[in-house]
Design goal:
386 residues; alpha/beta; Rossmann fold; Dihydrodipicolinate Reductase, domain 2; 2 domains; 9-stranded mixed β-sheet; 6-stranded parallel β-sheet; 23% strand; globular
């Protein structure tokens, strides 16, 4: 019986294509996440990185030397980069609080954008980004590379096959027993939000993408930062002692929420940078005909923590089908993210990870923060995009 069920989810064969142009690309922000963008762009034979921008003097130049981007010119602002280079695309790799500004300016300059996650900090910023996207006619994709993982794609394939029936409840989350990233991640003035934006957006996307991104209606949210503000659980990093990191920590390191979605679906969510558990639990997708268990990972890494299990009734018998881990073939997830973005530009779209979906992801994150501050359930208010 298991082989019969599994045969319904056999991955298809992807077609290879040839490309006959050179993409001129800029990178805005040369911090940690930009390193993966640079490495992936170097792996694409049809890409030339022609510009780098960073607010810190000398940082872009050091980045250029470290990654051998000899043809890249360096700028102290994204506006200088956009004004002085003829760009096909940019990667926005700045800290969260400047995602919206850099993305909107790039779109208005007629440049396609690969925007790192989270999309931004607030739902109002997300609406501003989408308006600029529509006005510009350029392509904007949000950087959710876990979607390129075949196991993540299997989750959506199983749900969309109808084997689970009508979905009524989802439990999801993830996190780390200890994994506070520090740097610019832990202050509102740069990050805006903490674990919610850093890894919570991934966990939400895993399940919401599978069920078709229904509109969020109400949210009861909770956030805390018991660990990040305690030097006992902090650690020193470049330029800061553990005590200093604890003192400047003013974002969430744990969040939880109860979300009502359109279609009568309940979403039970939790995420963590630090706690006393190795995981807050497996992800579950419950339907009226079956259920799917998605094993958690000890530290969010963009895939699943082991073979998934599909629970169904067959001819009156309760059955459990194990879905084996699918190996990732070819280039890594980041390379696939970059390649899918370039492919979409070359072919005229659509965006691999469209803002129309991540708008709801951002709405949930925003509502969790607002509900936590209010101490009560709130209705999700979505700004008009007109």
């Amino acid at each position: 019986m298991s082989d019969t069920v599994l045969s319904n989810f056999t991955p298809g064969i992807r077609q290879e294509r040839s490309y006959h142009r050179t993409f001129k690309v800029g990178i805005i922000g040369t911090g940690w996440i930009a390193e993966s963008h640079a490495e992936s762009y170097k792996n694409q034979p049809d890409v030339e990185v022609v510009g780098l921008a960073d607010l810190i003097p000398g940082k872009a130049e050091a980045f250029r030397e470290r990654y051998g981007l000899k043809n890249a010119r360096c700028y102290l602002s994204h506006t200088e980069l956009l004004a002085n280079e003829q760009l096909d695309a940019v990667s926005v790799c700045t800290y969260n609080m400047t995602h919206a500004e850099c993305t909107i300016d790039a779109l208005r300059a007629g440049v396609n954008v690969l925007l790192e996650k989270p999309m931004c900090v607030t739902i109002e910023e997300a609406a501003d980004i989408m308006r600029a996207e529509r006005e510009s006619g350029k392509l904007l994709s949000v950087g959710f590379q876990p979607r390129m993982d075949p196991n993540m794609q299997m989750i959506k394939k199983i749900v969309q096959s109808g084997v689970l029936g009508e979905i009524y409840y989802i439990q999801t989350g993830g996190g780390r027993r200890r994994g506070i990233p520090n740097s610019t991640f832990i202050e509102k003035k740069t990050a805006g939000i903490g674990a919610l934006g850093d890894i919570g957006c991934y966990s939400l996307d895993m399940v919401l993408n599978a069920v078709g991104y229904p509109k969020p209606l109400t949210v009861t949210g909770y956030t805390s930062n018991f660990f990040g503000t305690n030097p006992m659980y902090q650690y020193p990093d470049a330029g800061h002692t553990a005590q200093q990191n604890a003192e400047r920590f003013d974002v969430d390191d744990f969040a939880a929420a109860f979300v009502r979605l359109e279609g009568g679906i309940i979403l039970d969510f939790r995420i963590s940078w630090a706690m006393h558990l190795d995981t807050p639990g497996d992800s579950l997708i419950l339907g009226k005909k079956g259920a799917l268990r998605i094993p958690s990972t000890e530290c969010w890494n963009g895939t699943v923590g082991g073979p998934m299990k599909l629970y169904t009734d067959v001819a009156g018998a309760q059955t459990v089908t194990e879905i084996p881990i699918l190996p990732s073939t070819g280039s890594g997830l980041f390379d696939k993210k970059i390649r899918s973005f370039l492919d979409a530009i070359d072919q005229g779209g659509p965006a691999p990870v469209p803002t129309s979906q991540i708008f709801y992801n951002q709405a949930i994150i925003d509502a969790i923060c607002k509900s936590a501050a209010a101490g009560k359930e709130i209705e999700v208010s979505l700004p008009s995009l007109d």
